[in-house]
Design a protein that fits this description.
The structure is a homodimer.
Chain A lengths: L12 E2 L8 E8 L3 H12 L4 E4 L7 H4 L5 E2 L5 H5 L6 H12 L5 H9 L1 H10 L8 E2 L12 E2 L19 E2 L8 H14 L3 E3 L2 E8 L5 E8 L2 E13 L8 H7 L18 H7 L5 E2 L4 E5 L11 E3 L13 H11 L5 E4 L1 H4 L8 E5 L2 H7 L6 H14 L21 E5 L6 E6 L2 E2 L6 E3 L5 E7 L18 H19 L4 H5 L13
Parallel strand pairs in A: 1-9, 2-3, 2-11, 3-8, 5-6, 11-21
Antiparallel strand pairs in A: 4-7, 6-7, 9-10, 10-11, 12-19, 13-18, 14-15, 15-17, 16-17, 20-21
Chain lengths: 507, 507
């Protein structure tokens, strides 16, 4: 990291030094993606004069570029119609595990307790979900079907600790449905009366000497605007996966990843605006890392091994979990061994490291220590024939001896094999979406949601598709309601007489 | 994390609101441990009027509670007299590896290039090192001998990438030599003319509107002092391993550890003072975690296995590396398998999980999948008889087949099996010891060293004993020199006429 020439552009501006406010609103939201739009809808519906600052020419953010999957449960209409039982209790158990060892219990409970309500709310905005279930294991459903297993619900050790149910809900559009989802949210944001100021880059917060955040400095059409927020500011500006310096500093493992799920706004500015006003950033080292190859559904019956020829994870786990194991358990070297029955279905010919007629020959071709891979595969086969996997507990459905030569080893860790999808760290918030300082105190007047915060799920290895947008929209709503309900700041009220100075008309 | 009732006591005080300065000095240092004393000596010797604020009744910090080992190399007098060749080049190669994948190249080079000079400087303060070498592998040498292998130098993969040399230098005192080391440093700090204000708790920094740090607010004898620093403030207040909330937030794996290498000052205040003035904190999730048991030197010939009966690390690695592997590779479950020849030397009878006459019986007693442990041990024995370990490359000296029944499995992961020794995250600094913002800009007037910063070594699995105090004292000196050499702040000069106001006499 070089400090030459850089300037600290995100340190909060002291409110006492502001000579004029260009605009005044009740609630000012930074970023009009999934979190920001949800916040805007709720704040505006609660009667707050709400302004959303959007850096791009139009809202949408990273959510608009995504598959649009939302994590809902507890017995949604879609779950029921597809024949699945679910309950708040079982959902809570699973989400607690998915969120990681150090999950925020209060956030987990709130998210699950109100999941059905959140589903209904999303439907009320016009978001449609088809009552159809995708049985094939996938992280990326291409059709318009509504429901699938989007995480580790059916997988050891999760399956033993919470009754499995599919909770990935995809809006009823084929391909990437995130754009459709955002259209619904942006329309609702507009209809609720929230004003959007597009092409407007937020720069820093405005903070009073006593610590209260009372506004935002932003750049719009070449000019700097100083915008007053009477009730609160909500940061919903995304993560930092596109900020190479921040990634190098905090989550360097993502540097080697060759693809990111991000919009240009994911440069960490929202996080830095928060820390520039005294907020804590936490969990900054974690990111969701996905292997480019494993597991395609057709290959779940293969055997993943490390450079010692040992297995190291249940091959049927969610992609975030197998990828985490490849990186941290296997040290970034892993092969999927398949037999001809599986191989015939492969679409990864370029990944073939070796093809041999016997396990011993394959072991030799891969340069593995003599006898190790042979033992691993013979042992696997013996157990698989009985439908058991006492080592890593792969589900019986995916257990079948590798018995049809030739046998191939597919290299999962060639160059460009990992996607660093997004960062999992950000501002520390409470379940109220209030932002916290490193001391655990609230930064008054400041809220945040989405990837701008350290979200619900703190570990890539527990992640399920849909948790990001589920989390962002849920806590975005919480932030919107709580900011709008905030007692009006007395000093802001006092200053209202002067606020006409420099105010512009509504865009 | 609860925010109720907490207040943000570490946010920087705005200099413009200071009505009177109680004291004025050139350089103000927070913390009088290894880093702070080294900084004080250099700042005072450079002619700066230097004040050190120490929270306890006397300086010493965590260094005084430690073994006092320092990492020096490149061919010190002790290395040469003990018959070891070393060079700056080989030391640099090793330290770069030890510091971790994302080491700061500039810091690594500076630390190694000037290691001989730093050794001489330490000797010039009266710190004695005996010209004797401890051949037995240990992390905790109890005698007064001067030199030992304190890290992974002789271990795969380090040994193949840099010519091994022992670089752990222990001051010539039996038992814990950290107290003796600190006596020398504190005496030199006093003799150089640095003033120490003991029983003085630093609270927050004082910062000008333009971002420059110009002082410290501290509590002394019940009163708050506002202390001006004309040239710079140096934060040397330690890590955060004793701050449970910060540990829970950033490095929760350390919560399960039952012992910490820390003085009461390691509560993260120095880090929070820095972030409260806009500094970045980085690498906050990393800590040095040590297993309470493995490896005692007598047991290096044993075989470490996970719950699947697989080996997962070279057993002869440094304790920080085997412990990291137990936690992250083996998922917190590991046993050391020994035969009677090793077992006779054990001092860990309470750790015995099973004792059996055969590998198969041991496997059954541990509830491992049938055939796995048997395979692992038979394969290990076959290779060990040839003096080879193609799986994990344990050094030939420690390879011997387990051949004398009975065989015992010692449980390395019983309750209270892990020490969380210290945190490895903290403020971001450059090789100049200047503190950086999240943007990579320098916070003018602010320096830091020691565990208050994200040090040289960023990963527990590469750590070597002596790197912490080596790093702290080295970059403490850099900070002291650079703060003292800083151009005097014009506004401070201008304000000097008024500085008599409220100044107290020297303690």
């Amino acid at each position: 990291m070089s400090g030459e020439g850089a300037t600290d552009t995100t340190r909060a501006l002291r409110a006492e030094s502001v000579s004029r406010w260009d605009r005044t609103h009740d609630v000012v939201i930074v970023g009009h993606g999934g979190a920001g739009a949800a916040a805007a809808i709720e704040a505006a519906r609660a009667g707050a004069d709400t302004l959303v600052l959007e850096r791009m020419t139009r809202g949408g953010g990273t959510t608009a570029l995504s598959t649009g999957v939302l994590y809902f449960g507890g017995g949604t209409r879609i779950q029921k119609r597809c024949g699945f039982d679910d309950s708040v209790e079982e959902m809570t158990k699973h989400v607690r595990l998915a969120a990681g060892t150090h999950a925020d219990e209060e956030k987990v409970r709130l998210f699950c307790d109100q999941s059905l309500e959140h589903f209904d709310w999303m439907c009320s905005l016009g978001v449609e979900f088809k009552e159809s279930y995708v049985a094939e294991k996938t992280t990326h459903p291409f059709g318009d079907d509504g429901l699938f297993y989007s995480g580790n619900e059916e997988v050891y050790p999760f399956a033993g600790q919470a009754v499995p149910a599919p909770r990935g809900h995809k809006p009823a559009r084929a391909g990437e449905a995130g754009g459709y989802l955002m259209e619904c949210l942006l329309r609702a944001s507009d209809e609720a009366g929230a004003r959007a100021l597009n092409d407007c880059e937020a720069l820093r917060l405005v903070q009073r000497e006593d610590g209260r955040v009372v506004g935002v400095v932003a750049r719009h059409q070449g000019a700097e605007l100083v915008i007053r927020a009477r009730r609160g500011v909500i940061l919903c500006a995304g993560g930092f996966v596109l900020n190479e310096a921040m990634v190098a500093e905090h989550a360097p493992q993502l540097l080697q990843c060759n693809w990111k799920a991000a919009s240009p706004g994911d440069d960490g500015r929202g996080i830095r605006m928060g820390t520039g006003a005294g907020a804590a950033s936490v969990n900054m080292h974690e990111g969701l890392v996905l292997n480019a190859y494993y597991p395609p559904a057709s290959h779940l019956k293969g055997v993943l091994v490390n450079a010692q020829g040992q297995r190291f994870v249940n091959e049927d786990a969610y992609l975030g979990r197998t990828s985490d194991a490849m990186v941290y358990r296997a040290g970034g070297r892993a092969w999927l061994v398949v037999d001809d029955a599986i191989y015939a279905r492969t679409q990864a010919a370029h990944r073939i490291a070796a093809v041999e007629e016997s396990f011993a020959a394959l072991e030799g071709a891969l340069g593995m220590p003599e006898g190790e891979l042979v033992h691993t595969l013979e042992s696997y086969n013996r157990w698989a024939a009985r439908g058991e996997d006492p080592l890593f507990h792969k589900a019986p459905a995916h257990l079948r001896p590798l018995s049809e030569p030739p046998f191939a080893a597919l290299d999962c860790c060639t160059a460009n094999s990992f996607f660093g999808v997004f960062t999992l760290g950000g501002l520390a918030i409470r379940a109220t979406a209030e932002v916290l300082t490193p001391e655990g105190a609230v930064v008054p007047g400041l809220f945040a949601a989405g990837r701008n915060t350290a979200g619900l799920c703190l570990e890539g290895r527990g992640y399920a598709s849909g948790l990001s947008i589920g989390d962002a929209t849920f806590f975005g709503r919480v932030a919107g309601r709580n900011a709008a309900a905030g007692l009006e700041d007395p000093q802001a009220a006092e200053g209202r007489a002067q606020r006409a100075v420099g105010e512009r008309s509504r865009e």
